[in-house]
Amino acid sequence: MAKRYWLMKSEPDVYSWDDLVDQGEGTWDGVRNHRAKNNLAAMQKGDQAFFYHSNIGLQIVGICEVSVAGITDPTDETGKWAAVKVKPVEKLPASVTLKQVKAEESLAEMELVKLMRLSVSEVRPEEWKKILSMSKANAKQAD
């Protein structure tokens, strides 16, 4: 099965990119939205996700990889919610802001734009490539 891409939101004052890097592996849990749960359940080991800082920053800051898929959320007593474990892959050369994503016409259909409140969303391969190129362009502008 082909690798799939995702975007996972976390409030940086609760769990940030740096927290994941410090831990080396983290459990993505606490999701209580059915569509986001279905996305977590669909993830396979090796899938990659953008790490997005929500509420503070509103930006894509890094790439993480699913290291363990198909686990039950350890914070859920009912056993009906999904979770995965993720490991950091790399920090983006420069962050890509939500404002930049919204301004990019080719990303108008991205779930990050269309379903703003969704904490775990799918990213199509062409969207993934565009975000990576935007990050590289942002890094060049910063030099």
UniProtKB/TrEMBL annotation:
| EVE domain boundaries | 4-134
Query: What Gene3D superfamilies does UniProt report for this protein, alphabetically?
Result: ph1033 like domains
Residue ranges spanning the membrane: these are: none
Q: Which Pfam families match?
A: EVE (PF01878)
Stated name of the protein: Ubiquinol-cytochrome C reductase
The organism is: Croceicoccus marinus
In the record, what lineage is assigned to the organism producing the protein? Bacteria, Pseudomonadati, Pseudomonadota, Alphaproteobacteria, Sphingomonadales
